[in-house]
Amino acid sequence: MNVQLFIPCFVDQLYPEVGMNTVRVLEQAGCTVQYNSNQTCCGQPAYNAGYMQEARKVSEKFIADFPAPDYIVAPSGSCVGYVRGSYEEMFNNTSCHNDAKALTGRIYELSEFLIDIVKKEDFGAKLKGVATYHDACGALRECGIKSGPRKLLAQVSGLELREMKECETCCGFGGTFAVKYEPISIGMAQTKVQSALEVGAEYLISTDISCLMHMDAYIRKAGIPLKVMHLADVLVSS
Q: Does the pTM of the predicted model rise above 0.70?
């Protein structure tokens, strides 16, 4: 099947290897991946900051950049959750309403696309060690993603997945939250990392690179021997 790839801002600017690995996973799943180089942001940062007019402009461009009927896949539950939860209401009673509504039904986060649409769990990945999984807020609360990533990780040869007690707790990033409430944000990252260490994790894995970036900053500053990995990176490891 044909798939349109959406690469979120954090991936594009800071972690391009996650985007490339997403392509590798999708191709291994039998998909033909198309990438529109004119794509930019989904509009979430402006929306969350309260700049509705700016968010609407960026979101309208997003709709134009991803025409029907192909699936849209992104390595980010946060972006997908924003599109699904905001676009239809944002464009209500506008010329974009029908296109916005249709788009929300064909955009998927990577793990849910692999599990629910492609129905493939084993990608022949190999990664030796102990890992724990962080349920990113956007993926869990906005997209309902819970079991999918765990099913994929269960098929990774050599990887032992252990659940930490704080798996569903926010990491403290939250975009502008980390800027406006820095001490609280750092404390939340500390709680999350400590929870991962308590189960003996060597790898901290998630669907969202923004969460991982935030926790990795704390990990590096504290000199903790814990490596963060996006799910796409794990699925291509060997």
A: yes
